[in-house]
Automatic annotation (TrEMBL):
It comes from Sphingomonas turrisvirgatae. The lineage of its organism: Bacteria, Pseudomonadati, Pseudomonadota, Alphaproteobacteria, Sphingomonadales. Coiled coil: none annotated. SUPFAM superfamilies: P-loop containing nucleoside triphosphate hydrolases (SSF52540). It comes from the Bacteria. It holds the Pfam family DUF1611. This is EBNA-1 nuclear protein.
Amino acid sequence: MNAPTGRLAESLTLPQPYLLFLGDTAEASFGKTALGLADWARDRCVGELSLPGCNFTTGLPRLSLDEARAAGARSLVIGVANQGGVIGESWLPTLVMAMEAGLDIVSGLHARLASVPALAEAARRTGRRLIDVRVPPSDIPVATGRKRSGKRLLTVGTDCALGKKYTALALHRAFLARNIDADFRATGQTGIMIAGGGMPMDAVVSDFEAGAAEILSPDAPDDHWDLIEGQGSLFNPAYAAVSLGLLHGSQPDVFVVCHDPSREMVLGFDGYAMPSIEEVIDLTIRLGGRTNAAIRCVGVSLNTSAYSEAAAAALIAAEQARLGLPVADPIRGGPAFEALVESCLS
């Protein structure tokens, strides 16, 4: 019998295709929404639009608002996930012009689009929609702590924005290729835009975090897998509360640690050194064991985007030998990733 875990928000119907707005973001890691959509929903994107000061690209065509509209774009998606989830003052003229060009605005930021007077007025004047994705259901219950049926995998991280979503999506695709019954469970704005539904965990009131995770991954057949997108890091000085609530509520049977070996400091927090993979494994087992005593680590996902192919292969092999666990970069794939998939299923 299912626990009384309320309801998960209905699937989203967003105006597509998208024009991805990069703003004036100088740090590519904060452009993860645009990059994620370009990588996992490229067929739903016509191009990108950026402002002076932006120093990264999704690889999609750079279009003006008029060019994007002519290419069929129906909405402009704010592709930035900055600290605090704020709408940049410098973005407002472009967002207003986008509505005047006939585009709706889609945002996954914490700040509500309609809370900005200039945007609210432009939407009223043009008849365009302001669509906020980061809105959780209003009736999330407190967690029950009851062990649910089915199997669950959670991606956990040494930090934010280093591959938890990509790893869960890649594993989900690999599970389906093996004819395994599986769902990708999105927990952040980008994943929700890709999947068409999910739970924006970092917008949930803290008392209901674990309950939200229970809603996200309800009872399922014994052979069904939920691949749950992780959020934040247990070691992050700002976002650890979200990570812990998701860990307790999702009750993962297994987890994969995601890590960027090129990163020395926690993103956006100078003075806070990155934790080691071993520290993350140890703390995840100790805290996750509160709601699933059988929790275990089945491998490590490395983000080797800063490395050459040869250097990445050498690093993956060295880390596997050092840790005694399967290690892979899911984007590079290959035998190392296949071994990680098999470990998840073992």
